[in-house]
Inverse folding.
């Protein structure tokens, strides 16, 4: 970039100075694929890698937002800077309920060392939107010590949170025991730390025992200590949870597991760039060609088979030919 | 294919003869990407395109399964063959509830002209699994007159149902009014036919009026007639719903909108094949290269930027170079 017509240099300076408006503007640029997005990410990259990335997931109504609010307040008192990304499932049915959560979290959003942003779940290629990872990078470069991503665990894409977090907190409630037993192996793969929230309700101890027994039989990386009971609305169990989080992060650093996760995240990042180029350029060119339109007509009339159509397309397109040959 | 070592020819004969076991086996081959999957799809392709593809979506508890059971029984009496695909969201939290629905629908699964199959939501590339579309093709080739795909509308991937159906039925309940008003434009894009089920509950008329008013202001393709009240458990409103479905399908055929949807579906099919090759061959080769592993190490140490890493990769890989150049 010889000159900086888009003002990216200035924006990067703002981000590195933890300026809230600069951070917000940067995330908007990334979220909407505005000009300068790629340069922006490249420029902040070497300033990232310092924050602890924490995913919080669980069913609707488990009290995730309240729990995040309490953890955040705890860390604020320690002088930490906290970034929070609230991932809204792009669903027409649960929209209403989730809006309520967001409003509730606004009680901490006005604080100086907290940055909160709501983002939509899904990218053009499905799964957790790459923009969520990108926003985490901006928050990381902006000097956030902790970056919390909250997702509602109601679909596979939301559960992809494991791929972008150093530590995943799975929040559940005493009543969820039956559901969890049905699909226990899945749950155990997702979480590093398990919270039984609303633990003043009946069944909390039973749920705690269930989770611990599942840990014993399913995940050799975890111990009983990774299960915590909280009553987030009353601030009960928060100190204990913080300690578990700190211990988990420390152990991850010492054993090299953290580096492994960080590399997986970087791999995902590179592949998303490649996949985006492929979908938005290569495939769009194919789609807009007359040959493709003719082949679609033939397919609609069942005059040819799909693979014959692809073979014909590949004759005119070297990239496609190479891909279909498995190169 | 010179010989038929995998028995695909025999399987195709079975499918074309509406043999339930052949259909089940074919879907299993597709679902697990077993050898012969591509040949199988190509061989049945010219026998497809005859079934009406119906998507049924809506929030959990709206009574979708019961409604599908009643519609199915109606069509069975007309001598139709019905294929049903129940899409299970791949979620660890809602697993339990959905299992119950599936068991309920088994009351019709034993009937001769009904084929029911449960499938998982999600493909390797996110969104609605391509295997669901593939299974629809098998059912189509097997002579099903109607193919119903039921998804739970709790995530974007589930809502992708619009991309594979000729007609989408959105099932809701009287109480859902508030949620729907918040996100009305999304809802209107999804549905062709709107059902207020459990219409013996308070608020049914209000919900009906709300949906009709939203239709007027949001979607010029629809009219009041596309909103139907039912009490599926009592078989009320089913005849009316069937009439609306028939009318919608007929109008779609006459106006050419159906052909447009069918072509969009075929486009999706071709692009999925290409994307799968790309993800499973081209990208895997890059991932396994020593160069890539070295670059990941450098990225983890923040010694280079992501785009520099991609540029280095592209020097050794012509396909990647072409893609990054936007070819």
């Amino acid at each position: 970039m010889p000159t900086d017509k888009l003002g990216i240099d200035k924006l990067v300076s703002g981000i590195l100075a933890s300026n809230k408006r600069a951070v917000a503007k940067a995330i908007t640029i990334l979220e909407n694929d505005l000009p300068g997005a790629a340069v922006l990410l490249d420029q902040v990259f070497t300033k990232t890698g310092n924050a602890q990335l924490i995913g919080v997931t669980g069913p609707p109504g488990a009290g995730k937002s309240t729990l995040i609010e309490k953890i955040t307040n705890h860390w604020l008192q320690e002088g930490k800077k906290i970034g929070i990304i609230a991932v809204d499932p792009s669903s027409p049915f649960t929209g209403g309920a989730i809006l309520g959560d967001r409003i509730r979290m606004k009680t901490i959003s006005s604080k100086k060392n907290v940055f909160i942003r709501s983002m939509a779940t899904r990218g053009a290629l499905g799964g957790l939107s790459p923009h969520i990872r990108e926003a985490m990078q901006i928050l990381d470069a902006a000097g956030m010590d902790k970056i919390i991503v909250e997702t509602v665990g109601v679909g596979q894409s939301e559960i992809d949170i494991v791929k972008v977090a150093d530590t995943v907190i799975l929040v559940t409630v005493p009543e969820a025991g039956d559901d969890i037993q049905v699909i226990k192996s899945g749950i155990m793969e997702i979480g590093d730390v398990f919270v039984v929230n609303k633990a003043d309700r009946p069944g909390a101890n039973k749920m705690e025992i269930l989770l611990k027994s599942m840990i014993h039989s399913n995940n050799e990386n975890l111990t009983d200590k990774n299960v915590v009971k909280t009553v987030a609305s009353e601030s009960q169990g928060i100190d204990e949870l913080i300690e578990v989080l700190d211990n988990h992060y420390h152990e991850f650093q010492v054993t090299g597991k953290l580096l492994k996760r960080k590399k997986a995240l970087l791999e995902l990042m590179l592949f998303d760039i490649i996949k985006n180029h492929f979908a938005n350029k290569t495939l769009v060119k194919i789609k807009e060609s007359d040959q493709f339109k003719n082949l679609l007509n033939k397919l609609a009339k069942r005059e040819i088979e799909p693979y014959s159509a692809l073979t014909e397309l590949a004759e005119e397109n070297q990239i496609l030919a190479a891909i279909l040959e498995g190169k």
